[in-house]
Design a protein that fits this description.
heterodimer, A: 799 residues, alpha+beta, Beta-Lactamase, 5 domains, six-stranded antiparallel beta sheet, 19 helices, B: 126 residues, alpha/beta, Rossmann fold, five-stranded parallel beta sheet, 5 strands, 39% helix
C-alpha cells in the first residue's frame, strides 16, 4: 500500500468546508470525498449516532452506493463501527471476512471491500460517530495511516458536531412546524374518520414508517382496529387485540419500541404486523388510555430493507399520540353532543305533537271524532307523518279485532289529490296542529276507499295474524318485509298491498283496546325504530283517551236509563204519596159509611116495599155500596208493593184461571174470546192475586167498552201471552177488544186515579193495574185505535 | 133453652148498635164492649160463645187484645173485622177463627159467624 502526504492541502480544504455555510449533508459529502482522496482509499463513510445513542446512521459516503446515505442504520452492538463507538478507539481490519464483528450492509454495495479502517468522532469524552475508509484489497494499515485517520477524525469532530446540531435543530423545527399543521387540522374537524386518516398521513410523513395503524377503545373496554393502511389489508388489524405489543402498550400506558421484531422476546403473541421495527404509543387523555397508535418498519430509501426508528422519530410519535388523543376525545364528545342535540330536538317535536294532540282530544267526547283526530295526527306531516294509518278496535266480549277507521290514499295518484286538498287550510306549523286536528271529520274520512278496505279486515285475538300477536303480546311490531315476499303471507300484507308496516297496541291498564297500524305506502320510506318509538309513546295517551270516551259513552247510556227509571220512580212515589192521604181518609170514612149503609139497609128492610121511604133508603144503600167499593179499591191502591208476596208464577195459568171466571159473563154478552198462549213462556216473579187483579181489570175494561157497542155487532176480546227477548228476557200479555177504542182526548188521563167515563166506575181500575205493573218493574202500554179498539199490553221481567 | 151469646167489640158506638141490632135480629144474645178493657170485663160477666173484634181501636188494638185473650181462653171463637182484605196474610190473626172485611152489608159477617159456630158444634140447644 502506498502512503501519500497531502497534509497541508487537506487542512486547507478542511477549514474551507468547516467555515462555509453549508448544510450538513453537503459538508459531509465534501468531507468523505476529501478524506478518501487524502487517505487514497476506495471508500470513505461517515456515521453519526442518533438521539437514542443506540443507532448509527450512515450520513454520507464516498465510493459506496449513494442511495444508502441517510438510510442505513447500524446498531451500536453491531459491526466494526459499533465496536469503535463502544471502545472509542480507531480499529483497523485487514480482511473483514475473518473479523467476527463484521456486519455486512448490502445496500451500500460494500461487499467488494475487504480491508477497513474506522476511527471514532469524539465530542470531548463522548463518541458521536464513526468515520471509516475501505479498500478493495487486503491491506494492513500502517500506524501512520491509523494515526492519520484518528487525527483527521479529531480535527473534523468540532465542525461536524456544530453542523449536526444545527441540522438537528433545523429538522426539529421542520417537524414542529408539521406537528403544528397537524394540530391545526385536528382542531378543524370533528369527523373521527378524517382525524384518524390525517393522523396516519402525518405519522407516515414525519416518521418515515411503512405501516401505520390506530386502535381505539370500544365500549367494552377492549381495543379494536380503527385504521390501517390498505397495503396491509390483513384482517389481523381489525381484530380486537388482547395480547401482543399493542395490548401491552395499552394496558401499561407505556410506549413500546422494537428495533428488530425477529429478535424480540418480551411479548407473547407478538403482533405480526411489522417485518422488523415497531413503535407503539398509547394515546392518553386525562390519565386514561383511549387508544394506541402504532408505526412499523422504518422505510429505507427503496427496496425491501427496513430499519429501526430513531429517537427523534419516537419523540415525534409521542407528540402525535398526545395531540391525537385530544382530537379523538373532542370528536367523540362532539359526536355525543350532536346525538344529544338530535335526540333533544326529536323529544321536543314529540312532546309538541303529544301536547297538541292532547289539546285537540280534550275538545271531543265523541269516539268517532276522537279516532279521526288520532289518525289525522298519525298521518299529517306536522304530526307523525306516516303515509297511511288504520285504527283497529278489539271487542273483549267476542274477541274480535276489527278495522274501525282507515286514513290514507289507496294509490299514489289519490295521495297527491288528498295532499293537495289537505294542504289548503293545513296548519302552517306544529303549534297550530291542535286547531287543525279538531277539524278532522270522521264522516269525510269514512268516504275513502282505503277506509272501506280497512274496515273489511277482521281477525280473532287468538289468530296467528301479526295484529292479533301484537295485541296478545302488548308489544309493538315493525314488519320490515323484504319487498319480494308473496303477498299471501298475511291478511294484512294483502290488505295493504305492502309488506312493510308497523303496529302499535293501544293499551290501558294491561288491556289491549286495539292497535294503530301505519305504513309508508307511497313514499316507501323505511319505518325506523325511532319512528316506532314515537308512535308507541303517542299510542299511550291516545289509548287512555279512547278508554275515557268509551266510558263516557257508556255513562251517557246508563244515565239515560237512570233518568227513565227516575221518572218511573217519581210516578210511583206520586202514587204512594197520594195513597197515604187516601188511606187515612178512606179509613176515617169506612166506619161512618158502614153505619150509614148498615142502618139504611135496616130501614129498607123495615119499610114497606112500595113506599117512597123504602125507595129513598134503597138509593142510600146503592150509593153507599158504590162509595164502599171506591174505598176498598183506594185502600188496595195504597198498599205497599212490599206487602205482597212474590213467587214464581206461570203467567199462562193465571190468564187461563182468570179468563175462566169471566167466560160465562162474556159469552152472555156475545163476546167471542180468543186466547193464544205462548208455549215457552218463562216464569215471572210476582204476586199471584195482583197479577190476577190486573187481568181482571183489563177484562172488565174490555167488557165495558164492548157493552157500549150496539147489540148484535161483532164483539171480540183477544188475550195473548208471549216471550219477549229485548235487553233482558221478559214476558208479555195483552188484552185487545174491538170496542171502538178510547177517544184521543181521554188518552192522557186514563191512568190517573179517579178518572172514569163509566157511570158506575171508580176510575181506579187502570191506575191500580198500572201501579201493580210498575211495582213489578214492568211496563203497561196501550195501543189505541180510535173507532176500532184498544190493546193493553203488560210486559213483566222474567224471573 | 139459652140463646147463643155474642160479644161485639168495636170503638164506634154506631157500629156497635148496628151489629147488635142485626145480630139480635138473627137470633143471638148480643152484648157490646167499647174497647179492650171493657171487653175483658164483659167476657168475665157475660161468658160469650163468640166474639167479633174490630182491629183498629184506640188503646189496645184488636190483634193485641186477641193475643192476650188467647193466653187464658183457647177455645172461644173470635171473628176479626178488618177494613182491609189483606190482614189474612198477617200471622197474628191466625189466632182468630175467621175474619171478615167490614161492610155496611152484614150478610157476610152473619154467614161467617154461622159457619164458625157450626164448625165448633155450638148451637142453641147448648
Amino acid at each position: 500500500m502506498k502512503v501519500k502526504h497531502h497534509g497541508e492541502e487537506f487542512i486547507e480544504q478542511l477549514s474551507g468546508i468547516s467555515l462555509s455555510r453549508l448544510y450538513l449533508q453537503d459538508m459531509l459529502d465534501r468531507l468523505t470525498t476529501s478524506v478518501a482522496t487524502v487517505m487514497e482509499s476506495n471508500v470513505c463513510a461517515l456515521l453519526l449516532l442518533d438521539d437514542s445513542r443506540q443507532t448509527l446512521l450512515l450520513m454520507s459516503s464516498h465510493g459506496l452506493d449513494k442511495r444508502a446515505d441517510n438510510t442505513v442504520r447500524i446498531k451500536v452492538e453491531q459491526g466494526v463501527s459499533g465496536r469503535v463507538v463502544r471502545e472509542k478507539r480507531t480499529i483497523a481490519v485487514n480482511d473483514v471476512r475473518t473479523d467476527p464483528d463484521y456486519h455486512l450492509v448490502p445496500e451500500t454495495g460494500e461487499e467488494w471491500f475487504l480491508s477497513m479502517l474506522a476511527a471514532p468522532i469524539m465530542d470531548g469524552e463522548e463518541c458521536v460517530g464513526v468515520i471509516y475508509i475501505q479498500n478493495t484489497d487486503q491491506t494492513e494499515y500502517p500506524d501512520s495511516e491509523i494515526e492519520k485517520l484518528s487525527s483527521l477524525a479529531k480535527s473534523v469532530a468540532g465542525s461536524i458536531r456544530v453542523a449536526w446540531r444545527l441540522e438537528q435543530t433545523r429538522r426539529k423545527a421542520e417537524v414542529l412546524s408539521e406537528l403544528n399543521d397537524f394540530a391545526r387540522f385536528c382542531s378543524s374537524t370533528n369527523d373521527i374518520d378524517q382525524i384518524t386518516s390525517t393522523i396516519i398521513n402525518y405519522a407516515s410523513k414525519l416518521i418515515g414508517s411503512k405501516i401505520e395503524a390506530i386502535w381505539l377503545t370500544s365500549d367494552d373496554d377492549s381495543l379494536s382496529g380503527s385504521h390501517y393502511p390498505e397495503s396491509v389489508g390483513d384482517i389481523e388489524w381489525m381484530r380486537p387485540i388482547r395480547e401482543g405489543i399493542v395490548a401491552h402498550s395499552f394496558r401499561n400506558k407505556e410506549p413500546v419500541r422494537i428495533d428488530d421484531i425477529n429478535s424480540e422476546t418480551r411479548f407473547e403473541g407478538l403482533d405480526r404486523v411489522a417485518k422488523c421495527s415497531v413503535l407503539c404509543h398509547p394515546m392518553v387523555f386525562h390519565e386514561s388510555v383511549i387508544g394506541v397508535i402504532c408505526v412499523g418498519d422504518r422505510k429505507a430509501r427503496d427496496g425491501e430493507y427496513c430499519y429501526p426508528f430513531s429517537g427523534e422519530e419516537d419523540n415525534t410519535l409521542a407528540a402525535i399520540a398526545q395531540m391525537s388523543a385530544e382530537a379523538i376525545v373532542r370528536a367523540g364528545i362532539h359526536k355525543q353532543l350532536a346525538e344529544n342535540l338530535n335526540e333533544h330536538r326529536r323529544n321536543v317535536k314529540e312532546l309538541t305533537i303529544l301536547f297538541q294532540l292532547s289539546l285537540a282530544m280534550q275538545r271531543t267526547i265523541s269516539l268517532d271524532d276522537l279516532l279521526a283526530m288520532i289518525l289525522s295526527c298519525v298521518t299529517v306531516g306536522e304530526g307523525l307523518g306516516f303515509n297511511r294509518a288504520i285504527l283497529f278496535l278489539h271487542d273483549e266480549g267476542t274477541g274480535v279485532i276489527k278495522g274501525k277507521l282507515g286514513l290514507g290514499p289507496s294509490s299514489g295518484v289519490e295521495a297527491e289529490n288528498i295532499w293537495m286538498a289537505a294542504s289548503e287550510g293545513r296548519a302552517n306549523n306544529r303549534a297550530d296542529l291542535a286547531g287543525w286536528l279538531v277539524k278532522s271529520n270522521f264522516a269525510e274520512i269514512t268516504k275513502s276507499r282505503f277506509h272501506q278496505t280497512a274496515i273489511s279486515y277482521e281477525t280473532s285475538i287468538h289468530s296467528q295474524e301479526s295484529l292479533a300477536k301484537v295485541l296478545r303480546n302488548k308489544k309493538p311490531l315493525n314488519i320490515k318485509g323484504n319487498g319480494e315476499s308473496s303477498l299471501s303471507d298475511s291478511g294484512l300484507t294483502q290488505l295493504l298491498q305492502n309488506d312493510q308496516y308497523a303496529i302499535v297496541p293501544l293499551i290501558v291498564r294491561d288491556t289491549a283496546l286495539g292497535a294503530i297500524l301505519v305504513d309508508n305506502f307511497v313514499t316507501r320510506k323505511e319505518i325506523t325504530d325511532s319512528d316506532l318509538e314515537i308512535l308507541t309513546r303517542f299510542a299511550a295517551p291516545a289509548a287512555w283517551k279512547i278508554q275515557n270516551v268509551k266510558l263516557l259513552e257508556k255513562l251517557a247510556s246508563v244515565n239515560t236509563e237512570l233518568l227513565n227509571m227516575e221518572r218511573q220512580m217519581a210516578r210511583v212515589e206520586k202514587f204512594l204519596a197520594l195513597g197515604e192521604i187516601h188511606a187515612e181518609l178512606a179509613h176515617e170514612l169506612k166506619n161512618p159509611l158502614t153505619s150509614i149503609g148498615g142502618f139504611a139497609r135496616r130501614l129498607e128492610k123495615k119499610l114497606d116495599g112500595g113506599s117512597d121511604e123504602h125507595y129513598y133508603s134503597s138509593i142510600i144503600v146503592n150509593e153507599v155500596e158504590r162509595l164502599e167499593s171506591l174505598l176498598t179499591n183506594t185502600l188496595e191502591v195504597t198498599k205497599e208493593g212490599s206487602d205482597s208476596t212474590l213467587q214464581s208464577i206461570d203467567l199462562n195459568s193465571v190468564v187461563e184461571q182468570t179468563v175462566d171466571l169471566y167466560w160465562r159473563a162474556m159469552s152472555e154478552m156475545g163476546i167471542r174470546i180468543s186466547i193464544s198462549l205462548a208455549a215457552d213462556l218463562p216464569p215471572i216473579n210476582a204476586d199471584y192475586s195482583r197479577i190476577k187483579q190486573v187481568i181482571i181489570n183489563l177484562l172488565i175494561n174490555a167488557m165495558e167498552a164492548l157493552s157500549k157497542s150496539e147489540e148484535g155487532t161483532y164483539r171480540m176480546v183477544e188475550i195473548r201471552t208471549e216471550s219477549v227477548h229485548d235487553n233482558r228476557s221478559a214476558v208479555r200479555f195483552s188484552v185487545s177488544d174491538n170496542g171502538g177504542g178510547i177517544p184521543p182526548s181521554h188518552i192522557k188521563d186514563i191512568f190517573n186515579p179517579y178518572f172514569t167515563t163509566k157511570p158506575t166506575g171508580t176510575g181506579l181500575g187502570l191506575s191500580l193495574s198500572k201501579k201493580i205493573v210498575l211495582l213489578l218493574n214492568g211496563v203497561m202500554e196501550i195501543d189505541n185505535r180510535p173507532g176500532v179498539g184498544v190493546t193493553f199490553s203488560v210486559t213483566l221481567p222474567a224471573s | 133453652m139459652s140463646r147463643i151469646k155474642i160479644l161485639v167489640v168495636d170503638d164506634e158506638e154506631n157500629i156497635r148498635l148496628l151489629y147488635s141490632e142485626e145480630l139480635k135480629e138473627a137470633g143471638y144474645d148480643v152484648m157490646t164492649a167499647k174497647d179492650a178493657f171493657d171487653a175483658d170485663r164483659k167476657v168475665a160477666e157475660f161468658n160469650p160463645d163468640l166474639i167479633t173484634l174490630d182491629i183498629k181501636m184506640p188503646g189496645m188494638d184488636g190483634i193485641e187484645y186477641l193475643r192476650k185473650f188467647r193466653e187464658n181462653d183457647k177455645t172461644t171463637p173470635v171473628v176479626l173485622c178488618t177494613a182491609y182484605s189483606d190482614y189474612k196474610k198477617d200471622f197474628k190473626i191466625w189466632a182468630s177463627e175467621a175474619y171478615v172485611v167490614k161492610s155496611f152489608n152484614l150478610d157476610q159477617l152473619k154467614a161467617t159467624i154461622k159457619e164458625v159456630l157450626e164448625k165448633r158444634g155450638i148451637s142453641d140447644e147448648d
